[in-house]
Write a structure and sequence with these properties.
about 130 residues, alpha+beta, Alpha-Beta Plaits, 4 helices, 5 strands, about 30% helix
Length: about 130
């Protein structure tokens, strides 16, 4: 039986799409991330440790990207898409919930060529 839980931040996935592959960035990121998918030249990953907020997650991912060695940064730069996908699980309460990304973090993401997307997952009603 599912419940109408509270709206909550889930995690931030970093989704990379590339014609040349992303093996070097993935190798450089190492154990700091969990690779969720790695096929067809692209990959999706998330932080290995659960962040407390979207802001914290995006900041940590951007810091990891900033620290990539030159060869890995070259593959990063060749990606056709770099998306920070903020996952939110909707719930029955509270009435509204806000998840903030500061202008500083958004500017850092833009500076690295990354888009920010919010994915909101539907609230599941209890089974009859």
């Amino acid at each position: 039986m599912t419940t109408l839980a509270e709206t909550a931040f889930l995690n931030v996935d970093l989704i990379l799409e590339s014609q040349v592959g992303v093996s070097r960035p993935l190798a450089a990121l190492g154990e700091s991330v969990i690779v969720l998918n790695n096929e067809g030249g692209g990959a999706s990953l998330e932080l290995a440790e659960q962040p407390s907020s979207p802001e914290e997650a995006v900041e940590q991912l951007l810091s990891l990207i900033d620290a990539l060695p030159a060869e890995a940064r070259e593959e990063w730069a060749q990606c056709t898409a770099r998306t920070l996908d903020v996952g939110i699980q909707s719930g029955a309460s509270p009435h509204d919930a806000a998840f903030r990304l500061s202008s500083t973090v958004l500017a850092r993401a833009a500076g690295l060529g990354a888009d920010v997307v919010f994915t909101v997952y539907a609230c599941l009603a209890p089974s009859p």
